[in-house]
Design goal:
alpha/beta; 4-stranded parallel beta sheet; 6-stranded mixed beta sheet
Length: 292
């Protein structure tokens, strides 16, 4: 088992994005671990701390067939000596995704429930046990946001910190811990899910902080992509050596580059893009799609 190393995070300048009098850097949280990478660990860390303090034996959480959260939770549980159970959205497939296969290989038991029951977070009665500790989907909640707030970077250097948004937990945690003079900009990877603004707001410690989310870069919705996004991922890797995933980080980097080209950011802005890891999602792409 590979340990998690938060001290492996680096802040790298992205020269190809530096234009229109804007400086751009990325926080490489993807470097902390090959599986429990990026924001996944930060959102999980305080849930795990509480579960262990309560002498829980098993972690139960929720996710889809391609969920980074599911596979990260499975690995983290094995690392911490805990059992894991994943409540998976939808009927059991004939062929498991790479994500679900990996989660099972890390020891996670999978329970498939209907999309209707999943939407209502109906928990199978056999899983409601005193020794089971439940973590919400994507680590959403005050503990997940508190974990994200521990992400360390030079908060005095940047005018804007940018992140992708699925559950809203990362954006809330970044907002709760930011420098007062900086702003947090979120890029939604979900199509027309304007409820995200409220999801982030509910986790804010200061309700006067603005929630600024751009909803124009989802490429058709969650885990959707087109040839243009794939070309961007390969070109970005060629110029920077930084791998991205098509579900989250590629859409984020694409969006920020496009916004810089459109002069969205004021001259003199210093931007930090949070690379949230989750590269395992790329295994679902046809072989040879990516050059990395």
């Amino acid at each position: 088992m590979v340990s998690i190393h938060e001290d492996s995070i680096t802040t790298d300048r992205i020269e190809t994005f530096c234009k229109n009098e804007v400086e751009v850097y990325t926080l490489r949280t993807d470097k902390i671990h090959p599986v429990v990478s990026g924001n996944k660990w930060f959102k999980l860390k305080f849930y795990f701390q509480q579960a262990l303090s309560q002498n829980a034996k098993t972690i139960v959480t929720f996710g889809g067939a391609y969920s980074n959260h599911i596979v990260a939770t499975a690995y983290a549980c094995k690392l911490k000596g805990l059992r894991s159970i994943g409540i998976i959205r939808g009927e059991e497939p004939k062929n498991y995704s790479h994500t679900l296969t990996d989660a099972m290989n890390y020891g996670m038991q999978l329970h498939f429930i209907s999309r209707e029951n999943y939407k209502g977070k109906v928990i199978p009665t056999e899983l409601v046990l005193p020794e089971n500790y439940f973590i919400p989907e994507g680590g959403y909640g005050p503990l997940g946001a508190a974990g994200m707030a521990t992400l360390n970077y030079d908060k005095t250097k940047f005018t804007t910190v940018c992140c992708s948004i699925g559950s809203g937990t990362m954006m809330a945690g970044l907002t709760n811990s930011k420098n007062k003079s900086s702003e947090i900009l979120g890029i939604s990877i979900l199509k027309n899910n304007y409820e995200l603004n409220g999801d982030v707001y509910r986790l804010l410690t200061d309700k006067n902080e603005p929630v600024n989310i751009i909803h124009d870069y989802h490429f058709g919705g969650y885990a959707k992509y087109n040839d243009g996004l794939i070309r961007f991922m390969n070109s970005f890797y060629e110029s920077t050596g930084i791998p991205t995933d098509f579900v989250y980080s590629a859409k984020l980097f694409f969006a920020i580059n496009d916004l810089i080209n459109k002069e969205y950011f004021k001259p003199g802005s210093k931007i930090l893009i949070i690379h949230c890891g989750g590269l395992q999602g790329n295994f679902s792409l046809p072989k040879g799609t990516l050059i990395f």
